[in-house]
């Protein structure tokens, strides 16, 4: 921190006041004076931890509060860097062999980071308060060698958002099964739930693009509910399982009923939609959305608290499991500062640390607390969060964490998007092809059994 | 459409007096001002032009009404378009302001202003050498400059990040300074190529005449060559500004802290921020496009005003 | 064309000595910046294409493995066709529409100034927002802007982006829309350099509009057209942003181009070596294309 202050003269946020003058000559002077204050100066300081999170400026402000509380409590300084292009920056730091001490990032990245040797193994017992994290959460940070490589920090699970006002107007019950969901979607699409006399509403919102693997992210809950596993664990390795009878049945059902069925069950352009441009639910022209709880504040603002309800996902043939994901705390693979890192992790998962991260004026960074003594609904004073928490605790499945799941997710998304696009295509051969591709991915990682 | 003022510099050289007197009926000068010889008097051709202009406006500009109206709408929808704002309000701009868009905007102004000055200076010098001097390896150098535009920046992101953190030889850390964004944009193949092409077209006689008068190289460039390629400079200015303004990855790589981000980065943050609606994103987009549009308006004159015509053709 | 002072005698030797260094002085800042901030990282990028990239554990030399993997991947092979169609279509469309706009909007009247500025809006708006806007204009139901227009003509709604047969063409239309005003600006600058007296002379001689365009305008805007063409050669095959913001390569990979594939490889699959190899392949093709275009152009100039 100290080094950075020294350079304020050239720092952009100070300079912008002079923007109108565009005084380049003035800036010239500044650079000469500054420039040598890189991260390495702090790296040696045993009492400072360099912490990275993948955050935009809004959520960074929440982290700022959390870390300030930590420093106040322990006297350990935090050099906090919110990074948007996290992986790029991490790779460039990795090639200088100088990693941040602590990182907070997606659960799904653990396999990839571990394979690249970026992470330090963690003994849960070394983290104070480790027993307040459930075994289910801890099990999601086990790497391919059986050791833990992350500390659970925040979790979330998908739930179904339904337009309550529409549903009640049409006199239909809350959906409990896939069939209910489908019937409700059709009713939303055809029975003019918004009462404007025009056929301009849709049953359900689907981010169905293959870009960044979205259709696999959204579709995985349906796969779990249909009894499908994308990868099956076998001994110390995995086998792809997308050629199973369950997969054929489930994907065929989705294709026939959601994507190629009656018009209006899902929103138009679903096959090229990603979450950022799928706004039909908050715009009030679609009635259901299976998605993560981070949308609650958006929907409250756009639609109003009373117009919609948060429900557990309706059950398919094999139950109502949904996809769970979240963020972990990772320790960068470097020596020293173990005590400080453990102290920070203990604070982050403590009731105090978790509560701070769930509240405040800026965007919360913890959705469902991993600390089992906390209730998301109580902390937020919002009973809807108990639905999410219950879904996470009792009916959720994470993507396998040991392999680098990114290629698997992307290939699954490419295949599903193609199957759902070509309504006349043969699902069986599409899935067979996917299964072969997945086998190749696992082979690349030397995990194929 | 008013008749354009005749450039005083041009008049003496333009029309050969013999022809003018021998000419049939003298039409308005506007007829000779455009390639297609558009007339500014009402008539069938004039009507056709008006019609085509309306078509161009409809195709290229009308869709923007939806962006403007969305940015002023109380509740902009991300799934339908409308040409008129719902309950006009400035709320979206307020929210964008709370998210710090004006700070990012200031960063962008500094970077785009400084970057453009550097880029124009560097590229003009290079183009002058390439267009007005003969030397070995000329074609290779031009190809090298064009090569800078060919490799996708995503691929060089990680190595570039290392270079910015520790510039070879001098070992300076440019991250967190505006130089980290400005310097990599200094040599833009497009501007070099554009200015080279236009400078090549200036006849040798002009240069030779000046040389006989003992004009040095820098003065030659500044006082003889540059005034003759104003349209090209205008293009390099407008498109260079937009190119720098639109940089997304580079400011991210060069930033040390979110306060270093630019307005283009801020826009993408707004887009993925679940707490703000599409109205705020559109407000951000409207704020972000204003400077480029102003630069275009300012430099537009040099784009279309013929340079002392006749003077350029030997 | 280029200036060379042909002073005879002994002065010549001295001048040539000085003149040989001079251009390099002028080139130095540009070449230096390009070397440090472009070629150095670029060389490293090319170098990485021969490795299994693991920055922390140490990169592993894999020879041409990344290249064979990319070139034999059927999704990359599928992308070649899309890239060619999209690159060529967008470039040619952009040049044609851009030229038409420039010819239409040339002139100094204030009304023209305003129209030109309005037409320039697609270039100055953030690409992501443009993408979002076009997604809505392409809305596949009769509520969509374009489809409601078609509805007035009695034509049924077209599922532009939802249908793999039309998605590529829809993307191309947006690409041309973004590119045409950009090219317009360059061509306008070319038109500004045309000697007005030649037009007047041509009118006296009673030549047709076509001849006038062909023999006066075209030769004069050759540099501008050359730039637009070279630009098309450099950027055409690198088409990425337009696809990324509009369709993300979908549906069913029907708009996947070389760069979206490379991006997916590098970013969602963390295969930096593979992404570098894919980019180097593209770089080589682009370089070849650009050099060819320039060669043909030079030959045209001489003729």
From TrEMBL, chain A:
One of its GO terms (biological process) is maltose transport. One of its GO terms (cellular component) is ATP-binding cassette (ABC) transporter complex, substrate-binding subunit-containing. Keywords: Signal, Transport. The lineage of its organism: Bacteria, Bacillati, Actinomycetota, Actinomycetes, Kitasatosporales. GO terms for molecular function: maltose binding. Transmembrane segments: none annotated. It comes from the Bacteria. SUPFAM superfamilies: Periplasmic binding protein-like II. This is ABC transporter substrate-binding protein. PANTHER family: MALTOSE-BINDING PERIPLASMIC PROTEIN, MALTOSE_MALTODEXTRIN-BINDING PERIPLASMIC PROTEIN. It comes from Streptomyces cahuitamycinicus. Belongs to the bacterial solute-binding protein 1 family.
UniProtKB/TrEMBL annotation, chain B:
The keyword Lyase does not apply. GO terms for biological process: transmembrane transport. It is a multi-pass membrane protein. It is found in: Cell membrane. Keywords: Cell membrane, Membrane, Transmembrane, Transmembrane helix, Transport. Residues 1-28 are annotated as: Disordered. The keyword Transport applies. The chain crosses the membrane at residues 46-68, 109-130, 142-164, 176-199, 220-245, 280-299. Residues 105-299 form the ABC transmembrane type-1 domain. GO terms for cellular component: plasma membrane. Belongs to the binding-protein-dependent transport system permease family. This is Carbohydrate ABC transporter permease. It comes from Streptomyces cahuitamycinicus.
TrEMBL record, chain C:
Residues 80-293 form the ABC transmembrane type-1 domain. It is found in: Cell membrane. It holds the Pfam family BPD_transp_1. GO terms for cellular component: plasma membrane. PROSITE patterns: ABC_TM1. The chain crosses the membrane at residues 21-40, 79-105, 117-137, 167-194, 215-234, 272-296. GO terms for biological process: transmembrane transport. Its main location: membrane. It comes from the Bacteria. SUPFAM superfamilies: MetI-like (SSF161098). Gene3D superfamilies: MetI-like. CDD domains: TM_PBP2. Keywords: Cell membrane, Membrane, Transmembrane, Transmembrane helix, Transport. It is a multi-pass membrane protein. Belongs to the binding-protein-dependent transport system permease family. This is Sugar ABC transporter permease.
């Amino acid at each position: 921190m100290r080094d950075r202050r020294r350079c304020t003269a050239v720092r952009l946020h100070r300079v912008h006041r002079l923007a109108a003058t565009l005084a380049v000559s003035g800036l010239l002077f500044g650079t000469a004076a500054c420039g040598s204050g890189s991260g390495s100066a702090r790296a040696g300081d045993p009492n400072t931890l360099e912490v990275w999170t993948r955050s935009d400026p809004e959520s960074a402000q929440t982290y700022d509060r959390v870390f300030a509380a930590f420093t106040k409590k322990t006297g350990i300084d935090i050099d906090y860097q919110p990074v948007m292009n996290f992986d790029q920056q991490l790779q460039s730091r990795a090639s200088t062999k100088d990693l941040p001490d602590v990182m907070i990032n997606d659960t799904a990245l653990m396999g990839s980071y571990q394979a690249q040797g970026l992470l330090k193994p963690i003994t849960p017992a070394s983290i104070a308060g480790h027993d307040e994290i459930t075994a289910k959460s801890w099990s999601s940070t086990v790497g391919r060698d059986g050791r833990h490589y992350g500390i659970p920090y925040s979790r979330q699970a998908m739930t179904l958002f339904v337009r309550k006002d529409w549903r009640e107007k049409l006199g239909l019950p809350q959906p409990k099964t896939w069939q209910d969901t489908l019937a409700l979607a059709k009713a939303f699409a055809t029975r003019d739930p918004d009462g404007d006399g025009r056929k301009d509403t849709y049953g359900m919102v689907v981010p169905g693009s293959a870009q960044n693997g979205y259709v696999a992210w959204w579709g995985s809950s349906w796969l779990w509910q249909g009894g499908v596993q994308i990868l099956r664990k076998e001994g110390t390795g995995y086998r792809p399982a997308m050629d199973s009878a369950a997969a054929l049945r489930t994907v065929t059902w989705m294709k026939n009923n959601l994507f190629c069925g009656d018009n209006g069950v899902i929103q138009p352009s679903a096959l090229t939609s990603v979450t950022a441009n799928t706004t039909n639910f908050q715009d009030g022209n679609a009635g259901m959305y299976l998605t993560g709880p981070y949308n609650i504040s958006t929907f409250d603002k756009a639609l109003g608290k009373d117009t919609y309800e948060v429900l557990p996902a309706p059950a398919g043939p094999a139950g109502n499991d949904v996809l769970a994901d979240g963020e972990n705390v990772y320790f960068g693979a470097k020596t020293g500062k173990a005590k400080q890192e453990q102290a920070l992790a203990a604070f982050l998962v403590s009731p105090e640390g978790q509560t701070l991260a769930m509240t405040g004026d800026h965007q919360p960074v913890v959705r469902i607390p991993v600390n089992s003594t906390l209730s998301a609904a109580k902390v937020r004073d919002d009973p809807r969060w108990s639905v999410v928490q219950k879904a996470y605790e009792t009916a959720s499945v994470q993507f396998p964490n040991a392999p680098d799941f990114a290629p698997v997710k992307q290939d699954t998304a490419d295949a599903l998007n193609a199957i759902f696009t070509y309504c006349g295509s043969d699902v069986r051969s599409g899935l067979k092809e996917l299964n072969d591709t997945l086998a190749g991915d696992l082979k690349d990682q030397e995990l194929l059994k | 459409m008013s008749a354009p003022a005749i450039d005083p510099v041009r008049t003496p050289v333009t029309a050969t007096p013999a022809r003018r007197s021998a000419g049939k009926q003298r039409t308005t000068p506007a007829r000779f001002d455009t390639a297609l010889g558009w007339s500014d008097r009402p008539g069938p051709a004039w009507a056709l032009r008006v019609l085509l202009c309306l078509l161009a406006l409809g195709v290229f500009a009308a869709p923007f009404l939806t962006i403007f109206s969305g940015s002023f709408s109380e509740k902009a929808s991300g799934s339908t378009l409308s040409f008129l704002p719902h309950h006009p309000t400035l709320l979206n701009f307020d929210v964008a302001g709370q998210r710090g868009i004006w700070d990012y905007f200031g960063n962008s102004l500094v970077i785009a202003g400084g970057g453009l000055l550097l880029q124009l200076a560097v590229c003009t010098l290079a183009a002058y050498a390439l267009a007005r001097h003969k030397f070995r390896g000329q074609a290779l150098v031009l190809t090298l400059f064009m090569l800078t535009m060919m490799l996708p920046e995503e691929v060089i992101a990680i190595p570039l990040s290392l270079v910015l953190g520790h510039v070879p030889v001098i070992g300076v850390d440019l991250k967190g300074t505006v130089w980290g964004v400005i310097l990599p944009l200094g040599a833009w193949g497009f501007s070099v190529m554009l200015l080279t092409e236009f400078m090549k077209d200036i006849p040798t006689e002009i240069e030779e005449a000046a040389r006989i008068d003992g004009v040095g190289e820098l003065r030659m460039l500044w006082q003889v060559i540059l005034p003759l390629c104003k349209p090209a400079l205008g293009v390099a200015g407008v498109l260079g500004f937009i190119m720098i303004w639109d940089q997304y990855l580079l400011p991210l790589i060069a930033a040390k802290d979110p306060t270093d981000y630019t307005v283009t980065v801020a826009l993408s943050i707004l887009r993925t921020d679940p707490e703000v609606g599409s109205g705020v994103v559109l407000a951000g987009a409207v704020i972000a496009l204003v400077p480029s549009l102003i630069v275009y308006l300012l430099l537009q004159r040099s784009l279309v005003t013929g340079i002392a015509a006749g003077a350029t053709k030997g | 064309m280029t200036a060379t002072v042909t002073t005879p005698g002994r002065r010549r030797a001295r001048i040539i000595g000085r003149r040989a260094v001079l251009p390099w002085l002028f080139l130095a800042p540009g070449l230096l910046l390009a070397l440090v901030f472009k070629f150095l990282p670029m060389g490293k990028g090319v170098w990485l294409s021969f490795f299994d990239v693991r920055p922390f554990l140490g990169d592993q030399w894999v020879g041409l493995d990344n290249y064979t993997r990319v070139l034999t991947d059927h999704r990359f092979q599928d992308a070649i066709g899309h890239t060619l169609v999209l690159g060529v279509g967008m470039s040619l469309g952009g040049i044609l529409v851009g030229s038409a706009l420039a010819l239409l909007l040339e002139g100094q009247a204030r009304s023209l100034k305003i129209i030109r500025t309005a037409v320039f809006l697609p270039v100055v708006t953030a690409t992501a927002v443009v993408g979002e806007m076009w997604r809505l204009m392409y809305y596949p139901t009769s509520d969509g802007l374009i489809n409601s227009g078609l509805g007035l003509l009695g034509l049924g709604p077209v599922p532009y982006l939802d249908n793999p047969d039309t998605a590529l063409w829809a993307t191309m239309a947006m690409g041309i829309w973004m590119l045409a005003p950009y090219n317009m600006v360059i061509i306008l600058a070319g038109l500004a350099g045309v000697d007005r007296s030649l037009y007047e002379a041509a009118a006296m001689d009673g030549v047709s509009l076509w001849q006038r365009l062909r023999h006066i305008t075209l030769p004069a805007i050759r540099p501008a057209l050359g730039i637009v063409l070279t630009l098309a050669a450099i950027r055409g095959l690198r088409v990425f942003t337009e696809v990324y913001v509009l369709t993300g390569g979908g549906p069913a990979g029907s708009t996947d181009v070389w760069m979206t594939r490379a991006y997916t490889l590098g970013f969602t699959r963390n295969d930096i070596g593979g992404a570098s190899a894919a980019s180097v392949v593209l770089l080589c093709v682009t370089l070849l294309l650009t050099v060819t275009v320039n060669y043909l152009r030079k030959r045209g100039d001489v003729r």
